[in-house]
Amino acid sequence: MYFDNSATTAVDPRVLEEMLPYFTERFGNASSMHSFGREAYNALEGARERVAKAIGASAREIIFTSGGTESDNLALQGAAYANQGKGKHIITSVIEHHAVLSTCHFLEGQGFRVTYLPIDQQGLVDVEKAKEAMSKETILVSIMAANNEIGTIQPIREIGAIAQEAGAVFHTDAVQTITKLPLHVAKDNLQLMTISAHKFHGPKGVGALYVRKGVKLRPVVYGGGQERGLRSSTENVPGIVGLGKAIEIGVAEMEESAERMSRIRDRIIEGTLSKVQGSHLNGHRNRRLCNNAHFRFDGVEGEALVLSMDVSGIAASTGSACSTRSTETSHVLRALGIRPEEGRGSLRISLSKFNTMEEADLFLAELPEVVERLRLLVPRGAMTFRASGGG
């Protein structure tokens, strides 16, 4: 059973089918003038139209990249350097993906000033604190649409409105949110938005950045001038075709898929908190992604729990796939105020449209035994329990 879909998803067979010809008979370079090139170019532009339609944008506002990390870097570095004449202040949150946080740390070394907004015990950024942080020097605000570890959905529409009123560019990393929640770039006050195909049953190694018309960016990759000069490099046509098909399918099937995943998620949350003593839910109970359940367990090491579940045939994670091999407590859990000794016992369950209620029940049958077995390995007197069900 695969419960690590926030790390990556299986490619939808319909997506793979549409991609395959562009590896073989339709292999042209989209920049070539001959028929092979024109065929690849038309496929590229068809995918661009699909992505734009899915988020309420125009095709000219979609820039294809290698994935979420590159899109985040292009958004943050590109907007910071292009707008530094106005000011050098950036606002983000303490729980952003490392692609955003590491880029902000880099920009601090380049003379930019970054404000890192805190979160509450449910993982939410306070809209009023965001408003208070704004100044005439603020040029860029980046708040993720939903957290990749604990699943808490952020008030991006409200923060986006505040940012634009202050004359700052607003960016959101929507990698975990696309096809889970409806997103519309105008209604949600978005000027830059990051997308990654492999999070919604598309291929790895391809993503997109929505760039609202009129927003200034400086390229971070230079070369042949592809993608309106913002992302030079021969385009990954098969991957881009897959991205376009995956987002089209995902949005068309979103309502039904999200409702079904929510029911499975709730079964897992309620079952875990009732069956496992010393278990706690991390993140907001209701304002969370339809496919995310993130727990911590007293007296258990998360790495041991993940490996033991894997032996039982269940693939899960402790948190972000980008830092899953780290033994340090997640920066997201630290921001929630969770002590390191508590945060080490974390488990993230993340669903996809392919998961079933039967799998959830099998998980709930296995989990209590695994947790209890691991607790028996803890030295006597070293384990304490807190009230279960905490945020």
Give a written overview of the molecule.
- The chain is of the alpha/beta class and 391 residues long.
- It is built from twelve helices and ten strands.
- It has helices spanning 13-19, 35-55, 68-82, 98-109, 127-133, 156-165, 237-252, 254-275, 302-311, 331-335, 340-343, 357-375, and strands at 62-65, 89-93, 113-117, 138-142, 169-173, 192-196, 207-211, 279-281, 292-297, 346-350.
- Strands 1-7-6-5-4-2-3 form a seven-stranded mixed beta sheet, with helices on both faces.
- Helix 2 (35-55) runs parallel beside helix 7 (237-252).
- The two termini are 26 Å apart.
- Residues 387-391 have low confidence and may be disordered.
Key phrases:
391 residues, alpha/beta, Aspartate Aminotransferase, domain 1, 2 domains, seven-stranded mixed beta sheet, three-stranded antiparallel beta sheet, disordered C terminus
